[in-house]
Amino acid sequence: MDIGIAGKIEEQLTKHGVAHVRFDKVTPDPTYSQAELGLDLYQREGCDGILAVGGGSPIDCAKVIAARVTNNKPIKRLAGLLRVWRTPAPLFAIPTTAGTGSEVTVAAVVSDPVDHKKTPLMDPKLVPLMAALDPSLMTELPPHITAATGMDALTHAVEAYLSLNATTETDAYAIAAMKLIHENLISAYKDGKSLKVRLNMAMASYYAGLAFTKASLGYAHAIAHNLGAKYGTPHGIANSLALPHVLSASVPSAKAKMAKLAMIVGVGDEQWDDVTNAQAFVDYVVSLQDAMSLPKTMAEIQQMDVPDIAKRAVREARWNYPVPHYLSLRECEQLIEKIKA
Ligand SMILES: [Fe+2]
Question: Is the whole model's pTM more than 0.85, yes or no?
Fold first, then answer.
């Protein structure tokens, strides 16, 4: 009988005398109410810590539950920057996808299902105390999830590298992530059984998380969060859709760094100028989409929704992301229309 990943971990907890209770009410894009349900269970059972197992959604939800255990105020008032005043309940993470890097980041994203807004909580206190990366938990991930989560990790690395907050340290993590993704993502997509390839992707996601938790993100995430909030688009798919267009729009302001990315993944040429190399990197991202049969456009986007999605994305970027060039509302609308086409 297949007892699943959670069952196997529970067996180990029991074997080692650790009392536990399972909370499995978290869906993709977790909501405020799911986190409050988890808090109820935590308090009712007299828990003294949380072990989050899964992709970004369960780990993010666990971060919010841990914060709520010690901070008696509505989640809305914990959202934003540095608003988790008291140290959360002890939190540990075992990621089962290689993408979000949530096991190492300061961020947790939860949704308000009423106004369709995704609300990030950002505070260093939300970083789990420890994380275990075990590739044997990732070998059963289906190819389309491997592709989408891998593109999320790629977007973290790229946006952190292009951020104005990037440092020598975050660049080193972003480059390490880029190299691992370049060398392993397609293999993980085609044959996910290799432990070596899965571990390399888990490390890539971890390094990309270390890069963006300090250097921050950019417009691909601003647009992806708002596509996700409006249409429920999986986060990795939304990032994959947005990234080539965001990168094309970034060439004038970030060509030198984009040219370096082209060299890192072996599609650049030192004889070329920065703009040509930067464009080669955009083409490389598109080639990853092709190799993993990822969508290039999104038919669900309604023309009447474009101004609102753009307005929210522009606002999210302005308040949160130190990008090389801030888009005007019209530029952002045009970019979203390219994803829609
Ligand atoms: Fe992401």
Answer: yes
Tell me the three state secondary structure of residue 53.
Answer: strand
117 CA distance to ligand 1 centroid (A)?
16
Find the Cα–Cα–Cα–Cα dihedral 330, 334, 336, 340, rounded to 10°. Answer: 140
Q: Which amino acid belongs to residue 284?
A: Y
CA of 18 to the centre of ligand 1 (A): 33
CATH placement of domain 143-340: 1.20.1090.10
Pairwise CA distance, residues 17 & 13, whole Å: 6
Give the model confidence (pLDDT) of 163-186 as tens digits: 999 999 999 999 999 999 999 999
Task: Using the mean position of ligand 1's atoms as its centre, give its distance from the Cα of residue 111 in Å.
Answer: 15
Cα 236 to averaged position of ligand 1 atoms, centre (Å): 7
Instruction: Give 283-334 pLDDT, tens digit per residue.
Output: 999 999 999 999 999 999 999 999 999 999 999 999 889 999 999 999 999 9
User: 240: CA distance to ligand 1 center in Å?
Assistant: 10
State the pairing for strand pair 130-131/91-95: parallel
pLDDT tens digit sequence for 54-65: 999 999 999 999
Domain boundaries 4-132, corresponding CATH code: 3.40.50.1970
Q: Looking at the chain, which residues constitute the CATH 1.20.1090.10 domain(s)?
A: 143-340
Range(s) within the chain of domains with CATH label 3.40.50.1970: 4-132
Q: How far is the CA of 56 from the centre of ligand 1 (A)?
A: 9
23 CA → ligand 1 middle, Å: 24
Separation of CA 235 and ligand 1 centre (Å) = 7
Ligand 1 centroid–CA 119 distance in Å is 14
d(CA 5, CA 3): 7
68's enclosing H/E stretch is helix 56-70
150 CA distance to ligand 1 centroid (A)? 10
Count CB-CB contacts under 10 A for residue 72: 7
